[in-house]
Specification:
The complex is a heterodimer of chains A (285) and B (96).
Chain A lengths: L1 H16 L11 H8 L2 H4 L3 H9 L10 H16 L5 H11 L8 H15 L3 H7 L6 H7 L5 H4 L6 E4 L9 E4 L6 H5 L18 H9 L8 H7 L13 H7 E12 L5 E12 L9
Parallel strand pairs in A: 1-2
Antiparallel strand pairs in A: 3-4
Chain B lengths: L1 E6 L4 E6 L4 E4 L14 E4 L7 E9 L6 E13 L2 E13 L3
Antiparallel strand pairs in B: 1-2, 1-6, 3-4, 6-7
Classes of the chains: A alpha+beta (285), B mainly beta (96).
Chain lengths: 285, 96
């Protein structure tokens, strides 16, 4: 009797001691939210949290629902005849919900079902999925380091920021990476899943490098999308009309002439110039 | 981008149209929308830091005294979501 209890106690502690960062460990969305949710940051970083909620990063699964559903229904199931497991779901979630990196195959399958029923209009499913996104912990910890081999992986519970100002609430570390365009490139560029396939969802960083930087452009993504005009964590893009307007200048020249000798047909010579002010092609995707 | 003209008599004439976008292709040469299907991109977008220039010559009916040239630049995102980026116009008169 005593020994069984003791073993029971031992087992419980044993499971509690296993670090969460083990592959295939997380089985429910509740668990993901508890470990990696944005709520834990809201109390102290309220303003930033409010800005982030307005951004597409906070809706990165439900805002792309149609495409994700088509990938599952037509890509995986119909054309590829492959299961909805973690590896296959991460082809999209590597960027749309990196929190699922540690999901078990059964959680991945459940997320797949939720995507389909949310697409069919089930509000409950949509609410579940709205908890999967690109949140504070994703950017300030999970994907905060690009030079992993040189600097090592990020440490759990430590948040990487531009100044590294210390806090009694949690560890902080000054990070050069997070202020760089390379940081954004993890999700705003080509993706090569472990099997060597290539994924062209959003290849904007390619244009930033090859067309903007190559021609002498000096601004980083953060300069235009965060630092300018106090945009902070709202990350305005194509869905914000002022941003798009700022991206393109237009110039119209028109002169009236008469063409066709003898007839003098009225005609207009029209020249339109479109100047792209952004750090990459417009539009993208 | 749509270019139109409204003549002094009120007639609206389409002058030209131009689309700037990327076309995602599979390797069989078909346009594809799914991120998992696209393997090649044909880039017809506006490049950064540069002016993309378009020229049109439009002829109008005999007797037209003036026209208002209008350029409408629309940003199409997803079906049902679009926004007007610029609407500019210029009056052109044909003197005798």
């Amino acid at each position: 009797m005593r020994t069984t209890k003791f073993i029971g106690y031992m087992l419980v502690t044993f499971f509690l001691l296993i670090p969460v960062a083990v592959r295939g460990e997380i089985n429910t969305i509740d668990e993901i939210e508890k470990t990696y949710g944005d709520k834990a940051c809201m109390t102290c970083h309220e303003k930033i949290h409010g800005e982030w909620q307005k951004s597409l990063h906070s809706r990165s699964v439900i805002h792309s629902l149609g495409g994700l559903r088509n990938f599952i229904v037509f890509g995986l199931k119909r054309d590829w005849k492959k299961p909805v497991n973690r590896e296959n779901l991460m082809r999209c979630m590597h960027c749309h919900a990196p929190l699922l990196e540690q999901a078990s195959d059964s959680l991945a399958a459940e997320v797949g079902e939720l995507v389909q029923s949310a697409f069919d209009g089930n509000e409950g499913a949509k609410k579940q999925l709205s908890r999967l996104n690109v949140n504070c912990i994703v950017c300030h910890n999970t994907v905060a380091e690009v030079e992993i081999n040189l600097r090592g992986a990020t440490k759990p519970g430590v948040y990487y920021g531009p100044s590294g100002r210390s806090s009694a609430a949690h560890g902080t570390e000054k990070s050069k990476t997070i202020t760089s365009s390379a940081f954004c490139s993890r999700c705003h560029w080509l993706y090569t899943p472990p099997d060597g396939d290539t994924l062209y969802c959003n290849t904007l960083y390619g244009s930033y490098q090859d067309a903007y930087k190559a021609a002498g452009g000096a601004a980083a993504c953060q300069d235009c999308h965060m630092r300018a005009k106090g945009r902070g964590h709202t990350f305005p893009g194509a869905y914000v009309p002022e941003m798009v307007k700022e991206g393109i200048d237009i110039d119209l020249q028109a002169t009236g002439v008469r063409v066709q000798p003898g007839k003098g047909v009225p005609a207009a010579i029209i020249t339109i110039g479109l100047f792209n002010n952004a750090g990459h092609r417009i539009p993208d995707g | 981008m749509d270019v139109t003209a409204r003549t002094d008599t009120g007639a609206v004439i389409n002058i030209g149209k131009k689309e700037y976008r990327e076309i995602g292709m599979d390797l069989d040469g078909n346009e594809r929308l799914g991120a998992w299907q696209i393997k090649e991109i044909i880039d017809l977008s506006l490049p950064p830091g540069k002016t993309t220039e378009e020229r049109f010559v439009a002829e109008f009916p005999e007797g037209t005294k003036s026209v208002d040239i209008e350029v409408l630049l629309t940003y199409y995102l997803t079906p049902g979501y679009q926004s007007v980026v610029h609407r500019v116009s210029k009056k052109v008169a044909f003197e005798r």
